[in-house]
Amino acid sequence: MELYWYIIIALVFAMFFVLDGYDFGAGIIHLFFAKTEEDKEVIAKSAGLFWDSNEVWLVAGGGMLFMAFPTYYASVFSGFYLPLIIVLWLIMLRAIGLEFRSQFNFSMWKSIWDTLFGISSLLLALFFGIALGNIVRGVNLGGVEGGVSVYEGHYFFLPLWDGSFSPLTNHPGVIDWFTLIIGVIAVVVLAIHGANWIILKTDSSINQKLKSIIFKLNIVLSILTVISLSAWNFINPDALSNFSDRPYLLIFPLIYFVGIIGLFFINKIKNDTHAFYLSCMIIIGGITSSLASLFPVILPSTNDINESLTIYNTSTSAYGLSVAFNWGIVGLILLVIYFIVQKRLMSGKIDHMDYGH
Amino acid sequence: MEDMILYDRLQFAFTITFHYLFPQLTMGLSLIIVYFKGQFLRTKLDKYNDAAKFFMKIFAINFTMGVITGIPMEFQFGTNWAKFSELTGGIIGQTLAMEGLFSFFLESSFLVLFIFGEKLMGQKLHLLTAFLVFLGSWASGYFILATNAWMQNPVGYEILENGKYVLENFSALFSNPWLLPAFLHNQMASLVTSSFVVASIGAFYVLSKSNVEYGKLFLKTGVLFGLVSSLLVAFPTGDWNAKNVAKYQPASFAAMEGIFETEHAGAEIVLIGQPNMVEKKLDNKIAVPNILSFLTYQDWNKQIPGMDQFKEEELPTNVPGLYYSYHIMVGLGTIFIGVMGLAFFFLMRGKLFGFKPLLWTIMCLVPFPYIANITGWYVAELGRQPYLVYGLLKTVDGISPTVSSGNTLFTLLGFVGIYFLLGVLFLILVGKTIYQGPTPQKH
Ligand code: HDD
Ligand code: HEM
Ligand code: HEM
User: Fold this and answer.
1) Is the pLDDT confidence value at B246 over 70?
2) Is the link from the previous residue into A247 a cis peptide, with omega within 30 of 0?
3) How far does CA A264 lie from the centroid of its chain?
4) Strands B269-276 and B281-288, how do they pair?
5) B77 and A320: CB-CB below 8 Å?
6) Alpha-carbon torsion (A111, A128, A223, A137), positive or negative
7) CA–CA separation, B79 vs B181, rounded Å?
8) Whose CA is closest to A204, among A63, A98, A350, A1?
9) Is the pLDDT at B6 greater than 70, yes or no?
10) Residue B386 preceded by cis peptide, ω within 30
């Protein structure tokens, strides 16, 4: 049962990053590459129409995580207190930026809220990457100090950073050079994803230019991937041992690399939807590979005193998991139907779609 | 420790109060929209359809605000109340996750369909989408109240050796005797809010002589729904809730009614008075003897335990807050019945639209149902103190063990700042929508 719930929740979160990922990405592209007023308008719209229905997946994933793995929810949410609250603020600021911009037709007003929208999208992407980096790196569970736990073994607290920015100290912060690399990767991946989305959904004048931007970002991404893998191996020598023990898990990194390789042919790909699928693969592959490398651990402990958190030592009772599975399946089917209906209804370019008002 | 718990509570209270400003409108409004759409199908008069679409715009703005402010609520269980989440997540996580999975999807997908799909679907299906939006938002309220009901009156659980509460009986969560009265009362209360909003927009249009035809329709509808829901909120649902509190949380009942000393026979009902916590009595009291015993137990002489019957550590921590919240809620409820009753009377005699003082009253009264709803929740939440889960887990034992008070204060201030911006945005959006008015159907 733990395993089923783990897979369901991982998929729901992966969906969240794929879906909300494109509107974060659209924000990043908007910040750096949109120059004319029309492009800004249409890019903001390509995110503005969708962000709230995409956040549904976050709510659903969060609720299920709370139910199925309460100890994990408690530990991670209180341990990463500051970054999580900052993420909440960014989510809200982004929404504020998007909604405010169109209220008055006055260029300085628009540029203020555009910048807010762009920067908060960028920082969100960065923070989500950093979060993944933290989970992969592990934390000092129990806050061990001189061989003694300060808290119960499954609690911890991280400052945003610690002076050395090193993942190898006793008390790494949320941001260190390793997690920062992962954060930058997330920014690049989501920028690519967002660019693909804009190409797919709009007729903006920069679509052609975006393709070459995707190509360049893809090169950067490949380099960063290699760097991050070796950095990871450096801080945790048996990081990849799960893959040698269970070779079938290699399917996940494979998805990731197919995505990257595919996108090198971006200029040849005729159907924009295919390009978009490739960046979806990068995101899904990246997340699932990280999780697979840790499995069954979901938060490694960096000390020898307290055990890592796994899906088995953080879950609720077997009864709770199994009753929830009954309604969970129904809910997931509804979710998929919802998703298809929404995609059907909102398919096509949005430039000419009139929205409510 | 002391200031730590203080900031955690303040943060929760602030963010939930802000969050609850929005769902209380959406839940009631969705029902009124179904009514408008249904009337359109019945009468084929375009104004009903325009009204439904107009209020769906206001609904959509509120819905978005509900989502943005709801996500922090879910997160806060983990960030600020980690110990509570760890111990009870296996139980309240069930209802919260069901909310996220079912109701929200229902609501947001059919909201999209309602806004975009009228031409595509035809009128009958369009009505169905409105109905499903309504169903989604009420289901959302139901699951949330099931969560809260478990904290007020825990059922169907089992305590493990490591102190964790796990679920023993899933269906007990939904047959909790606390749930149905609380749900019905809460839904009627949100209908009060929405009726006032509808009626006051109507009063505004009539008074300002713009969109007058719509104004009259809104007034009529708002007053009808307002009268029915104001009556239902007091009786039977409010009364039913009071009986539940007396039964399951007698200490909070004594505090909210302001009974310091147990009377030998028959408790009086306090109309006015200020709790004096030093001398343990009510100052300037005006009370009517024996009524409370009758209302609660249908027995004029039944004894009701006062606060002197309980140990200090079992009494709610904020007795005056609880007492005032309760009296404000009930007092406002009485006023609502009065105003709506009067408006209904004039409506029946065909004089409402010309009776300016009453129209002004209706228009200006719109903040008060919000206040009644918020104070109602304060009654529930302050009355639950000092427990987080009534009788089982104290609030002090539920906070995050690793988060310091400085951090909580910092994030509290941040929320205040961002919610200020959100509030401004909300007012601009709603103000614009009301100013533009409903769009008449083009032929
Ligand atoms: C428009 C709003 C409104 C109005 C006019 C009233 N209420 Fe109320 N009341 C609520 C809005 C509300 C609420 C916000 O919806 C609460 C909070 C928890 C709940 O389920 O509903 C609530 C809770 C609540 C409780 C439970 C407190 C607890 O859980 O400890 C009682 C005993 C009453 N109400 C009683 C009444 C009575 C006797 C009223 C007579 C007029 C009344 N309410 C009017
Ligand atoms: C229905 C779902 C709700 C749940 C599950 C819930 C849960 C909680 C929790 C966990 C706390 C913090 C612990 C505590 O102080 O006891 C709290 C406190 C509080 N809540 Fe609620 N709440 C709900 C609804 C509301 C609403 C709608 C309001 C007001 C509009 C509200 C007002 C408050 C207040 C004022 C406090 C602080 C009380 C105090 O600490 O003295 N709650 N609630
Ligand atoms: C601690 C208490 C609460 C939490 C954790 C919470 C959580 C959330 C979340 C995450 C959302 C956005 C997504 C969704 O609908 O699932 C939301 C929206 C909503 N919440 Fe809350 N909420 C709380 C209190 C309440 C209360 C007391 C009610 C009313 C009974 C309520 C009713 C709604 C409704 C109807 C929505 C849908 C959005 C809308 O219609 O505006 N919530 N809530």
Assistant:
1) yes
2) no
3) 22
4) antiparallel
5) no
6) positive
7) 31
8) A350
9) yes
10) yes
Q: Report the C-alpha gap between A28 and A292 in whole angstroms.
A: 29
Kindly report, residue by residue over B190-244, the tens digit of the pLDDT.
Answer: 999 999 999 999 999 999 988 888 999 999 999 999 999 999 999 889 999 998 9
Instruction: Mention every residue, 6+ apart, whose C-beta is less than 8 A from residue A350.
Output: A42, A45, A46, A49, A201, A202
Mean pLDDT for B26-40 is: 94
E strands, B106-198, where?
157-159, 165-167
Q: Compute the distance between CA of residue B372 and CA of residue B352 in angstroms, rounded to an integer.
A: 25
Q: What is the token pair recorded at A64?
A: 């299920």
Q: Considering only CA atoms, which of A72, A78, A115 is closest in space to residue A94?
A: A115
Please give the Cα distance from A78 to A228 (Å, whole number). Answer: 27
The DSSP line for A33-71 is: H--SHHHHHHHHHHHHTTHHHHHHHHHHHHHHHHHH-HH
Q: Which of B155, B277, B406, B246 is nearest to A82 (CA)?
A: B406
Residue B35: closest CA among B54, B49, B23: B49
Instruction: Answer yes or no: are the C-beta atoms of B53 and B425 closer than 8 Å.
Output: no
Q: E strand or H helix at B40, and its extent? A: helix B23-43
Q: What angle do CA A301, A302, A303 make, to 5 degrees?
A: 95
Nearest 5°: the CA angle A77, A186, A131 is 15
**B99 alpha carbon, distance to own chain's centre:** 17
B279 alpha-carbon distance from chain centroid? 34
Burial label, A173 (beta-carbon count in 10 A; 0-12, 13-18, 19+): buried
Contact A78, B411 (CB under 8 A): no
> Strands B281-288 and A297-299, how do they pair?
unpaired
CA distances from B220 to B54, B217, B234, B419 (A): 16, 5, 22, 34
Q: Which residue has the tokens 């493990």?
A: B160
**CB < 8 Å to B87, chain A:** 70
Burial class (CB in 10 A: 0-12, 13-18, 19+), A101: buried
Specify the 3-state DSSP secondary structure of A296: coil
Cβ atoms B185, B233 nearer than 8 A:
yes
Q: Both tokens of residue A102?
A: 């169109």
Report the distance separating Cα A217 and Cα B213, nearest Å: 58
Ligand 3 neighbours (beta carbon < 6 A): A 59; B 16, 19-20, 22-23, 26-27, 62-63, 66-67, 70-71, 73-74, 99-100, 104, 107, 137, 140-141, 144-145, 186
Nearest-5° angle of CA B353, CA B358, CA B359? 55
Mean pLDDT calculated for residue range B175-180: 91
Residue A105 tokens read as 């037709």
- Interface probe, candidates B79, B111, B118, chain A, greatest A C-beta count within 10 A: B79
Question: What are the average pLDDT values for consecutive 10-residue runs of chain A, which has 357 residues?
Answer: 89 90 89 83 80 83 91 89 90 86 78 89 92 86 78 81 76 84 92 90 81 90 91 81 87 91 85 88 92 85 82 86 88 84 72 48
Q: Are B243 and B296 in contact (CB under 8 A)?
A: yes
Which position has the token pair 């989305």?
A: A197
| A119, burial (CB in 10 Å: exposed 0-12, middle 13-18, buried 19+) | middle
Using the beta-carbon criterion (under 8 Å), do A81 and B170 form an inter-chain contact?
Answer: no
pLDDT of residue B36: 94
CB A353 within 8 A of CB A45: no
A-chain residue closest to B80, CA distance: A78
Q: Which of these, B19, B17, B147, B3, lies nearest to B85 by C-alpha position?
A: B147
Summarize the confidence of residues B325-343 as an average pLDDT. Answer: 93
Contact: A66, B74; criterion CB under 8 Å: yes
